[in-house]
């Protein structure tokens, strides 16, 4: 089942542009003067943003306990001020939760970037583990060999426990797209964020971060936070040839590697640390490089025997100094960023760090770079000097990230962090090789990282998997990889965005199976601008790949418009890495067709939707009285409605069908009547319609008692949640009710679920149900429960309120929680107060359910009753024997040992107060107390405990972070050299074992060989207690490399009564064919499930059909308590596929052209090892249309100036879905329905002839276009921009292409402050520089106008009213730099100080 299609194209106008922009229009830049004014006002604008944000706190689901702490503020060239705020909860930061506000130039707040905000946090903020203990626990986890040189830093945070779940269930793991998942917060923990730094001779330098549970000290997350480019690889040295270095001459006359031209203070410096082992804790004694002749280095790689101050030693310093300057200039010239932090803060570099160190890294604490010398030539495969330009820029970009999005260096955000550095490392190299101008260009650079350091690059951006460990596309396991490797998909997406992708028709490294037809790129300049804006404006610390796509789309819309080719290229580039879908899908503007049907009889009605689409239906939503009641992702699109939850009278069903492009079709409403024999007195009984008429105390939007939507609700999407804070709290939910005086029966029922961490032995937290009068005085306490009464799931409660007939009373539920830090939450849902005024002759409706708890120790037996009258108790009949009457709660919890193993049946009998009786359908459940899991530490969360490792290389074969589940897994590899290694554990299989299912998850990656033959192997065996082989289960090899973990299962029941050794052996002895080739075998989740109970339970089986036309997906989810041996799939009785030993979710494509349109049946049959069989059948409908004809279209233009209207006439055999309008190739808007008219103002256009192009699209990907020309009247100008010195003159009349015209009026737009203009067009500049505008209008029609931009400049750079040598020195000092707030030498306002400015300066020299 596919998730709802992301509908960004439909929302972008409101999300990005705000009210001032037309849909699809790109943002407009503001003038330099306006920009400087806005930046000067950033503090007050940030304060204004904070005020706006606080005003929206309720809309964000936040309350008084939540605040915002400003992290950064920046104003872009569009005049938008973007302020980042950290979400705070009771004074503590919420991990990864950041809000970004966007304020336009007028001070109007635009839509807030709020995806990472966490509402409704409930957690105790009192730690049990203090800061010092957290630091000590973290150090214990690091296992230091020496003493740390600095104490770990600690910060108390709120940690959201996030689980990624399908938005709509039904897709197998390997078919998931990044946007098929959503993040669901399953709880919050108080945690310590601990940053440890080991810096000593025994450990080296290690930065490790932890999130530790502040109550238990348990490790929640752990990651390596040292942002370094160094991984395993070989390469060539860098060589820039003769380069220009900005240096400083000191008072002694010596030259220093200190650049004071780019920033202030100490400048950009390069120091020699003379092999100080900084990596191993040695404190360096840095020496600033000095030289007498200002000629540095010898251009050769460093000779390990050389003096670091010699010419040869200086070369590494030259590379470092030049690299910092080049990266600084790249960001300033291309992105108008003033230094790493955009504030010009100086940075410095250490060179000759350590002895033969193959590493370079950015250290945010010192705001500096560290460079090793590499191990070449002593190691022919080692690195040369680490100062190559892409590595330099990569590391410095880590600093840029730290001052902007600050992407967390773990999981998917860690991959984006690394990719961000690779992207700008590559872009800096392109820019440098292409001339260091105002554009990056697409020649001169390359798409590999560190290729100049070694013969094999560290990373290949165009195909990351060429390194053997990186991924080419997103997959569900991507977050488990090291950030250097899960950066691959983002690198590839950027490559595709810039350079395009080839077709997969022929095998190549520049295509993607997710985008088989390929795509056109938009070039480095546009791609880099889009990604830079995404980084600085929309990404947040916890952003994942789906969020990166959203941020890039928003940036593309800002820069180019949401209808632009650039926007479509972003869609395609991310689609090519399995994140979102291609732009071609968005050509689908045609919504599905859907109809609704109501069938069956009360109290259970079947709601059905019939839907079809030109591409395919993704999912269907069901609305009853405008309230969403269900979503269906597979056919049949059906839902069973319990009408007893509705009021009597007429109701309406509407269904909405969505396709893959997000288009929605809505059915006509279908009416149905509910005529229950009772009256429902409680309003909004299921919490599906907001708050009213319930009253919540306290009323705090940050902690609402009524939660909607909530995935935790029993039914629908609403529920009530009392307490659960872990601290002293009282939550009250109440509603005033009037029970009719003639009520014969008034029955109150509701469902309660109690979840607790508190002791089961003492009542500490309580929930009370009361009846009070209208003045709030207690009349009666109906019931009281506590943490001791914790339920196994939802339990129904029932009370007779007939004695309150004729009264208006208050139903009040009070939850109380103490301050012990142990959470107890009381969940309530599905209230009913049903009143009948006559005799009760209607039998209850009852269903039975049985639920086993997670420990297999208890089973909850329950009846779920719906009746018009009062049912005070139910009878539970287990295996044909009555367990007696269960009053009030209809639930009985039994120990599984008392019930016994095997298959059981449950029937519930309900009798109401009038004696009417009904019995539920029989339900069966299965208990197996003999079932157990034998493997110790199966998921490696206790590291190596319980396992025996034998290896010559513990560094290659060891525990690693980011497993298949949890945090850790065991990795076998050849990273340290050829080896044979093993991992094993002894288990005793009970003698009475009937079934023994052995399973593990394995992920194989390898780039070591190219011949397609097995060389490195991984074998799973069973051995006896003496180490003799009993059975070889399976052997895997480098040939089995895949994109993710795969499960492998085996039946070991033959070994019952024996002690066996579960044995894994990795053989990576053979030398790789590829230089530096690597093979990895990642092992996780090793389980041996045994049972001594015969299996009489058939498999569990759910089926459905995804799609309605073309190739649909047959979906089946099968699970068995022991082993499913076979799953057979049939369509209309004909076999389609047979799967052997299936377990989990499966989809199989099916071409519906073989069966035709209409109703069909899909059947699945599952058989387990014991011969138990389960079948499931669903009906589905096929509706396919074949369209091969494009639309017909014509274009016309009417009106003039602001009354201009563009018109298109379009027709198509299957319907026109949209008409797009372009002026001179620039997208202006789209119209989806006839008449296809777009009002347009030609006033912003230059006078002269222009071209309108209209493009008509149909629902099946066909398009046609037509053009029409029109003229914008007004004076024709040869140029619309001139340069005039202060107090100078310029005859603007010479710009008139048709000569002087007496009907023209000349005016200075800003008035005399910007100079004057004569009636003939002679302009006289003012005495001060600036940007002025002269308007030229026709006397007979003021709309017939044109405008000239006049840049008034002065060469008097120091303001002494004389253009002399001092001014020339200032010009020379800033020549070649990007304009900034401190630069005045950009005379022509081109954005940089260049030769044009020199020419203008010379013309004014001496004046």
Automatic annotation (TrEMBL):
Active site, renumbered: 395, 484 (proton donor)
Location of the FTP domain: 66-113
GO molecular function: metal ion binding; metalloendopeptidase activity
Occurrences of domain Peptidase M4 (ranges): 233-400
Gene Ontology BP annotations: polysaccharide catabolic process; proteolysis
CDD domains from the UniProt entry: M4_TLP
PROSITE patterns, alphabetized: EF_HAND_1
InterPro entries given in the database record: Dockerin_dom_sf, EF_Hand_1_Ca_BS, FTP_domain, Ig-like_fold, Peptidase_M4, Peptidase_M4/M1_CTD_sf, Peptidase_M4_C_domain, Peptidase_M4_domain
Signal peptide range: 1-22
Keywords tagged on the record: Hydrolase, Metal-binding, Metalloprotease, Protease, Signal, Zinc
Domain Peptidase M4 C-terminal span(s) in chain numbering: 405-579
Name of one Pfam family that matches: Peptidase_M4_C
Record keyword Hydrolase present: yes
Similarity remark: Belongs to the peptidase M4 family.
Record protein name field: Peptidase M4
């Amino acid at each position: 089942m596919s998730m709802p299609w992301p509908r960004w194209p439909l929302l972008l106008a409101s999300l990005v542009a705000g009210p001032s922009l037309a849909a699809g229009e790109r943002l407009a830049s503001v003038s330099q003067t306006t920009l400087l004014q806005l930046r000067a006002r950033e503090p007050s604008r940030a304060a204004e943003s904070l005020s706006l944000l606080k005003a929206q706190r309720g809309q964000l689901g936040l309350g008084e306990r939540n605040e915002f702490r400003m992290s950064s503020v920046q104003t872009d060239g569009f005049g938008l001020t973007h302020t980042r705020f950290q979400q705070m909860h009771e004074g503590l930061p919420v991990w990864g939760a950041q809000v970004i506000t966007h304020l336009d130039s007028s001070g109007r707040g635009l839509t807030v970037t709020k995806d990472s905000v966490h509402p409704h946090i409930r957690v105790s903020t009192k730690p049990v583990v203090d800061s010092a203990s957290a630091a000590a626990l973290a150090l214990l986890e690091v296992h230091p060999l020496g003493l740390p040189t600095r104490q770990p830093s600690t910060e108390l945070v709120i940690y959201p426990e996030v689980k990624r779940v399908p938005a709509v269930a039904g897709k197998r793991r390997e078919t998931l797209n990044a946007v098929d998942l959503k993040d669901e917060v399953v709880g919050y923990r108080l945690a310590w964020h601990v940053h440890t730094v080991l810096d000593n001779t025994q450990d080296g330098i290690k930065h490790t971060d932890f999130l530790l549970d502040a109550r238990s000290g348990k490790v929640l997350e752990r990651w390596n936070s040292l942002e370094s480019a160094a991984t395993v690889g070989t390469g060539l040295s860098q060589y820039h040839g003769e380069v220009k270095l900005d240096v400083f001459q000191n008072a002694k006359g010596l030259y220093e590697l200190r650049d004071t031209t780019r920033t202030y203070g100490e400048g950009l410096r390069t120091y020699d640390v003379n092999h100080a082992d900084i990596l191993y804790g040695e404190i360096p004694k840095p020496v600033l490089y000095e030289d007498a002749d200002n000629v540095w280095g010898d251009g050769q790689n460093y000779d390990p025997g050389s003096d670091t101050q010699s010419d040869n030693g200086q070369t590494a310093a030259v590379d470092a100094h030049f690299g910092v300057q080049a990266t600084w200039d790249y960001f300033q010239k291309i992105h108008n960023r003033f230094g790493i932090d955009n504030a010009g803060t100086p940075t410095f570099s250490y060179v000759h760090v350590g002895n033969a160190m193959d590493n370079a890294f950015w250290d945010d604490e010192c705001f500096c770079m560290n460079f090793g010398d590499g191990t070449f030539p002593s190691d022919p495969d080692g690195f040369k000097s680490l100062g190559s330009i892409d590595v330099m820029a990569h590391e410095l970009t880590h600093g840029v990230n730290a001052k902007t999005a600050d992407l967390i260096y773990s999981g998917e955000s860690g991959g984006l962090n690394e990719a961000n550095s690779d992207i700008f490392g590559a872009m800096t190299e392109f820019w440098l090789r292409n001339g260091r101008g105002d554009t990056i260009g697409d020649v001169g650079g390359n798409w590999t990282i560190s290729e100049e350091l070694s013969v094999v690059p560290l990373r290949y951006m165009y195909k990351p998997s060429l390194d053997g460990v990186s991924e080419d596309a997103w997959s569900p396991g991507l977050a488990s990889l090291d950030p250097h490797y899960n950066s691959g998909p983002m690198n590839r997406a950027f490559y595709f965005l810039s350079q395009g992708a080839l077709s997969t028709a022929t095998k190549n490294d520049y295509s993607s199976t997710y985008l088989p037809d390929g795509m056109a790129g938009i070039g480095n300049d546009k791609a880099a601008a889009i990604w830079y804006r995404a980084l600085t404006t929309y990404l947040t610390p916890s952003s994942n790949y789906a969020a990166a796509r959203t941020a890039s789309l928003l940036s593309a819309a800002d820069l180019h418009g949401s209808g632009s080719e650039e926007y479509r290229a972003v869609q395609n580039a991310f689609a090519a890495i399995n994140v979102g879908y291609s732009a071609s899908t968005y050509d689908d503007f045609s919504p599905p067709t859907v109809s609704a049907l109501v069938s069956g009889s009360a109290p259970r009605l079947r709601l059905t939707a019939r839907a079809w689409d030109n591409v395919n239906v993704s999912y269907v939503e069901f609305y009853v009285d405008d309230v969403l009641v269900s979503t269906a992702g597979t056919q049949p699109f059906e839902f069973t409605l319990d009408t007893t939850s509705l009021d009597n009278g007429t109701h309406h069903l509407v269904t909405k069908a969505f396709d893959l492009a997000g288009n929605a079709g809505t059915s006509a409403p279908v009416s149905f009547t509910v005529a229950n024999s009772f009256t429902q007195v409680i309003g909004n009984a299921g919490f599906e319609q907001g708050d009213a008429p319930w009253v919540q105390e306290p009323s705090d939007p940050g902690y609402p008692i009524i939660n909607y939507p909530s995935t935790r609700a029993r039914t629908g999407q609403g529920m009530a949640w009392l307490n659960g804070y872990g601290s002293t709290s009282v939550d009250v939910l109440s509603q005033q009710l009037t029970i009719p005086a003639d009520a014969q029966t008034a029955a109150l029922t509701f469902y309660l679920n109690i979840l607790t961490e508190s002791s089961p032995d003492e009542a500490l937290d309580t929930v009370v149900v009361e009846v009070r009068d209208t003045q709030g005085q207690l009349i009666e306490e109906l019931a009281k429960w506590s943490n001791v009464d914790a339920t196994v799931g939802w339990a129904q409660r029932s009370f007779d309120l007939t004695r309150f007939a004729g009264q208006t009373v208050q139903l009040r539920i009070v939850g109380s929680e103490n301050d012990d830090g142990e959470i107890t939450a009381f969940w309530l849902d599905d209230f009913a107060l049903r009143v009948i005024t006559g005799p009760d002759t209607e039998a209850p409706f009852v269903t039975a359910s049985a639920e086993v708890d997670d420990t297999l120790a208890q089973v909850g037996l329950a009846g779920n009753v719906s009746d018009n009258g009062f049912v005070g108790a139910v009878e539970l009949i287990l295996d044909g024997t009555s367990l007696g009457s269960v009053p009030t709660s209809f639930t009985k919890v039994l120990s599984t040992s008392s019930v016994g193993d095997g298959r059981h049946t449950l029937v519930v009998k309900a009798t109401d107060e009038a004696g009417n009786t009904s019995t539920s359908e029989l339900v069966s459940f299965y208990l197996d107390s003999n079932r157990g899991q034998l493997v110790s530490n199966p998921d490696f969360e206790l590291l190596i405990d319980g396992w025996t490792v034998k290896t010559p290389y513990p560094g290659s074969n060891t525990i690693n972070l980011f497993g298949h589940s949890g945090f850790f897994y065991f990795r076998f590899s050849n990273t340290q050299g050829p080896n044979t290694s093993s991992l094993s554990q002894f288990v005793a299989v009970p003698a009475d074992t009937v079934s023994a299912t052995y399973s593990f998850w394995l992920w194989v990656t390898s780039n070591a060989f190219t011949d397609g033959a097995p060389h490195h192997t991984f074998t799973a065996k069973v051995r006896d207690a003496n180490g003799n082989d009993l059975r070889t289960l399976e052997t895997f090899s480098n040939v089995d490399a895949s994109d993710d973990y795969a499960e492998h299962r085996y039946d070991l029941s033959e070994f019952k009564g024996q002690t066996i050794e579960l044995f894994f052996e990795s053989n990576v002895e053979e030398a790789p064919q590829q230089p530096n080739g690597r093979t990895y075998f990642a092992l996780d989740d090793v389980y041996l499930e045994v049972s001594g109970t015969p299996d009489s339970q058939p498999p569990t089986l759910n089926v459905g059909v995804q799609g309605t036309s073309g190739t649909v997906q047959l979906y089946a989810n099968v699970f068995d308590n022991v082993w499913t041996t076979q799953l057979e799939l049939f369509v209309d009785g004909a076999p389609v596929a047979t799967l052997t030993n299936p377990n989990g979710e499966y989809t199989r494509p099916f071409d519906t052209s073989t069966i035709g349109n209409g109703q069909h049946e899909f059947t699945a049959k599952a058989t387990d090892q014991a011969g138990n069989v389960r079948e499931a059948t669903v009906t589905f409908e096929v509706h396919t249309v074949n369209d091969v004809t494009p639309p017909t279209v014509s274009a016309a233009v009417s009106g003039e100036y602001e009354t201009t209207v563009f018109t298109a006439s379009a027709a198509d055999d299957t319907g026109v879905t949209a008409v797009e309008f372009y002026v001179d190739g620039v997208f202006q808007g789209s119209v989806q329905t006839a008449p296809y008219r777009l009002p347009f103002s030609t006033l912003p256009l230059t006078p002269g002839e222009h071209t309108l192009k209209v493009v008509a699209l149909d629902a099946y990907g066909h398009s046609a276009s037509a053009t029409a020309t029109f003229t914008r009247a007004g004076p024709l100008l040869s140029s619309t921009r001139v340069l005039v010195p202060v107090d100078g003159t310029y005859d603007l009349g010479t710009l008139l292409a048709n000569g002087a015209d007496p009907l023209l009026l000349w005016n200075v737009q800003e008035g005399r402050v910007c100079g004057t203009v004569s009636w003939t067009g002679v302009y006289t500049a003012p005495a001060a520089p600036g940007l002025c505008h002269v308007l030229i209008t026709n006397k007979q029609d003021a709309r017939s106008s044109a405008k000239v931009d006049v840049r008034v400049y002065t060469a008097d750079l120091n303001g002494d009213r004389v253009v002399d040598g001092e001014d020339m020195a200032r010009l020379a000092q800033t020549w070649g730099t990007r304009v900034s707030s401190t630069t005045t030498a950009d005379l022509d306002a081109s954005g940089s100080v260049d030769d044009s400015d020199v020419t203008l300066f010379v013309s004014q020299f001496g004046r």
